[in-house]
Structure formats: structure tokens, C-alpha cells
UniProtKB/TrEMBL annotation:
Keywords: Isomerase, RNA-binding
Chain ranges of the RNA-binding S4 domain: 1-63
Enzyme Commission number(s) from the entry: 5.4.99.-
Family under the similarity heading: Belongs to the pseudouridine synthase RsuA family.
InterPro entries on file: PsdUridine_s_RsuA/RluB/E/F_cat (IPR042092), PsdUridine_synth_cat_dom_sf (IPR020103), PsdUridine_synth_RsuA/RluA (IPR006145), PsdUridine_synth_RsuA/RluB/E/F (IPR000748), PsdUridine_synth_RsuA/RluB_CS (IPR018496), RsuA_PseudoU_synthase (IPR050343), S4_RNA-bd (IPR002942), S4_RNA-bd_sf (IPR036986)
Superkingdom of the source species: Bacteria
Species of provenance: Petrotoga halophila DSM 16923
Pfam families in the record: PseudoU_synth_2
GO biological process terms on file: enzyme-directed rRNA pseudouridine synthesis
GO MF assignments: RNA binding; rRNA pseudouridine synthase activity
Family annotation (PANTHER family): PSEUDOURIDINE SYNTHASE FAMILY PROTEIN-RELATED, RNA-BINDING S4 DOMAIN-CONTAINING PROTEIN
Protein name according to UniProt: Pseudouridine synthase
Length: 246
């Protein structure tokens, strides 16, 4: 097992585990290692957050994958600890989830909707790769009324202020009222703050954003803010994903 994989099993995402090892290092058998690809051997142990973890223990833990859906409310941070004392998703999970999990598909503090929580790094990577076409659907309340031509530009791909041109998306107008528009936007990718930047590139502003679908999972499964649902084991989750493409 590689050192990066060991940190994923303990608590970190793939990206954060790699960053932590490269920048801070992790002690393996008492010696500091800064190579994420370092191969752990039988009887090896690592030290992380002042705790010891033996390879045999991590291998056993790796077999126990868990999957949950969370309806994240507005005003909650997508992190497990905040230095300013703001509410985090960890506050929502206390007493409900015993396992160490990480979130898939970050939502901003002022956004709401579906989050997947898991300790399965392989699934996380699969869900977030655009080439796998795992669709995420959002309801977006916009200040203003974008024209049909502007919405078509969104669908075909628009260049953001970062210089990145988005992939094709689907945009549907759900409602228009005075100077507000309620849109449904479907994406197969997920850059940081992408929808807000897409709308900004048109010259408008997002007032509210809610994720209502993530692959085969829908907000109806966790209808109330703060609701959590256990999705079953790896095989059940895999079958749900496969049915999404059949």
C-alpha cells in the first residue's frame, strides 16, 4: 500500500493526502517520508495527528467502505473544522456517522444541496472525472433575465475570468419573474465556483444555488436541509452508478 493511500484511508482526500505528504511529510516507522508513492511494507506503521496506524490495521479499514448522502444547508462550510468557529458539515454529522469520511463535490458556504460523503477514494476520483460523464444538476436563481442567445453561450461553453473555457452543459429556464430567473444547469465537470463564474461571465449574479442531482442520486432522497441517508455498501453504490448509464 502506498503512503498516499494510507492517508486517504485515515481521513484525507487524494489531493490533500498528496499535498500533506509533499509539504509536511509523514513519519513511517519513526522516519519522516515526503514521497506519496512510498510503499508501505508488512509490519510498517505511520504516525498521523499524534496517532499510530499499522499497515495491517489500515488494510482492514480499507475494506469497510461507507457511502452517505447529505443535504447541505446554506450557512454551513464544506470542511470538518473552521478556525473562526463557523458551522461545518462535521457539526451535522456528529452522532450520526461514526466513520471518518470526506465530501465529494464541494459546495460553497452560501450554497446548498447534495453532497456525497464517503471514505472511498477510488469512487471519489471516478465521480469527479469529467470523462466519466457523471452529471451534476443545479437550480440557480439569477439576478436578471439572460437572453436565449446568452443561455446558448452557456450551453456551448463560456470562457471564465480565470481563462478556462467550460465544457458543454445543459441549461433550462424554469421560471422568469421581473428581474429574476430560475435556471436548471447540468454539468459533467466541477471547477471551483464554476456556475457562479459562468453566470458572472454573462454579466449576471447568482442569488441562490442548490445542487439537486449528483449522478444517480437526487435531492428527494434527503429532502430536508441537514438530512443524511446511508446508501449501502460498495456493490449497491456501484449498481446505482451503472444503472445511471443503462
Amino acid at each position: 500500500m502506498k503512503l498516499q493511500k494510507a492517508l486517504q484511508i485515515i481521513s484525507l482526500s487524494r489531493r490533500h493526502s498528496s499535498e500533506h505528504i509533499l509539504t509536511k511529510g509523514v513519519k513511517v516507522n519513526g522516519k519522516l517520508v515526503k514521497e506519496p508513492w512510498h510503499e508501505l511494507k508488512e509490519n510498517d506503521f505511520i504516525e498521523f495527528n499524534n496517532k499510530k496506524y499499522y499497515l495491517s490495521e489500515l488494510q482492514k479499514k480499507a475494506e469497510n467502505k461507507v457511502y452517505y448522502l447529505l443535504n447541505k444547508p446554506k450557512g454551513v462550510l464544506c470542511t470538518f473544522k473552521d478556525q473562526y468557529g463557523r458551522k461545518t458539515i462535521n457539526d451535522l454529522l456528529k452522532g450520526k456517522i461514526d466513520e471518518r469520511v470526506f465530501y465529494v463535490g464541494r459546495l460553497d458556504y452560501d450554497s446548498s444541496g447534495l453532497l456525497l460523503l464517503t471514505n472511498d477514494g477510488d469512487l471519489t476520483n471516478y465521480l469527479l472525472r469529467p470523462e466519466n460523464k457523471v452529471t451534476k444538476v443545479y437550480e440557480v436563481l439569477v439576478k436578471g433575465t439572460p437572453s436565449k442567445k446568452e443561455l446558448q453561450t452557456l450551453e456551448e461553453g463560456i470562457t471564465l475570468e480565470t481563462g478556462y473555457k467550460t465544457m458543454k452543459s445543459k441549461v433550462k429556464v424554469l421560471k422568469k419573474e421581473k428581474d429574476l430567473s430560475l435556471l436548471q444547469i447540468s454539468l459533467n465537470e466541477g471547477k471551483k465556483r464554476q456556475i457562479k463564474l459562468m453566470i458572472k461571465a454573462l454579466g449576471y449574479k447568482v442569488i441562490e444555488l442548490k445542487r439537486i442531482k449528483f449522478g444517480p442520486w437526487s435531492i428527494e432522497e434527503v429532502p430536508e436541509p441537514g438530512d443524511i441517508k446511508y446508501l449501502g455498501g460498495r456493490e449497491e453504490v456501484r449498481n446505482r452508478l451503472l444503472s445511471n448509464f443503462s
